[in-house]
Amino acid sequence: MIPELLRVLAAADNSGGGPDVGKLIGQFAQYGIVGVVVVLLIVGVVVPKYVMSALMTEKDNWRQAFEKEREAHQATREQLAKAEERGDVATEQGRAMNALLLELGHRPEIPRSA
Q: Residue 42 contacts by C-beta under 8 Å, 6 or more apart in sequence?
């Protein structure tokens, strides 16, 4: 069985376009369900439970990391918005103070270049 399996795989690899799944299933159909399951395992259509569990765990880990990163970016955006508001308030306070001083008659001193 194993030498024939190797011969079938070698013939499939010589075709150049990858394994012909239909041909493989047809050749392994003589071995019954076991042959079909082996072909599906080799091709990757069927995967063992431990592989699927590992993939699902990895997917969940990536999802959690993505959610944490998105929350961090949202916090950064909120902080930047608050800083912009503070800057706008400070600018407006400076303009109001400048207008008040000009109204009271204070003229700003312009530094002279040497």
A: 9, 19, 24
pLDDT exceeds 70 at position 81: yes
Average pLDDT over residues 46-61: 90
Spatial CB neighbours of 25, under 8 Å, sequence gap ≥ 6: 36, 39
- Closest by CA to 12, choosing from 1, 31, 2, 27, is 27
* DSSP assignment string, the chain: -HHHHHHHHHHHHHTSS---HHHHHHHHGGGTHHHHHHHHHHHTSS--HHHHHHHHHHHHHHHHHHHHHHHHHHHHHHHHHHHHHHHHHHHHHHHHHHHHHHHTT--PPPPPP-
Q: What is the pLDDT of residues 6-38, one digit of tens each?
A: 566 656 555 555 566 677 667 766 777 777 777
